[in-house]
Structures are given as C-alpha cells and as structure tokens.
Amino acid sequence: MERIGLSVLIAEDDPSNREMLLCMCRDLFSCQCDAVGDGMEAVNKCKGSAYDVVILDHHMPKLDGKNAAFRIKSEGVSQDAYTIVISGDTNALSGVCEESSSINSILYKPFMLNELHSKLSFAANKRRV
What we know:
Blueprint: E1 7-11, H1 15-28, E2 32-36, H2 39-48, E3 53-57, H3 65-74, E4 82-87, H4 96-99, E5 105-108, H5 113-128
Parallel strand pairs: 1-2, 1-3, 3-4, 4-5
C-alpha cells in the first residue's frame, strides 16, 4: 500500500483499538502518530500540535467523537484537520457529514484496511491542493 506520511492524532478509548489504529497508520502508511484515550484529550492535544488528520472514536468518555470534532474545528484549534469519526453504530451518525462541517468522513466498524487507506489518501490529496 502507498505510504501516506500524514500527521495523525488518534482518539480511541479502547486500548486494543487504539493500538491497532496506531499500527495501521504508523507502520503501514508511514504516518506520524499521537494517540489519546478520550475526546477531551484530543481537543487539548490539538491545541498544542497541528495535525493533518484526527481520527476519533464516536463513543468515548468525557467527550464523544462528534462533539470533539466540533470543538476541534469551531474553537480554531485545528480547523484544517481532516476529521474521521469511527463508529460501530451505523444509525448514530447517519447524515452527520451533510449536517456538520466538523466531521469530514465516517468509518464504520468493522472496517477493512483499504477503507482506512482510502480515507487517509483522500485527506493527503486534499492537503496537496
């Protein structure tokens, strides 16, 4: 698979899922990655670093992925970051990309490696434009 090389923040409360995402992004796609365990940590981490992509689990403690994406974009924290929300609930985020400019893409669990690659490639191409 193509090496993408973006800076990525992963916000996932499940340690196994967080590690899996880290390995995929870092080892397979050559992305520079940071990871946190909840949405509030993601917002705070974005205040100190500029990320190309922020991947947020939908259901997290303290602040869910949808609201974390909103805060990251609306508070001027990382307005240019491409945000991907990951969810196992296909109904919970139905229509959210159309309604909200804070979420750029949704990835439904379980997902295939090529689906993540496609979304990261899209974000990389968008950064180049």
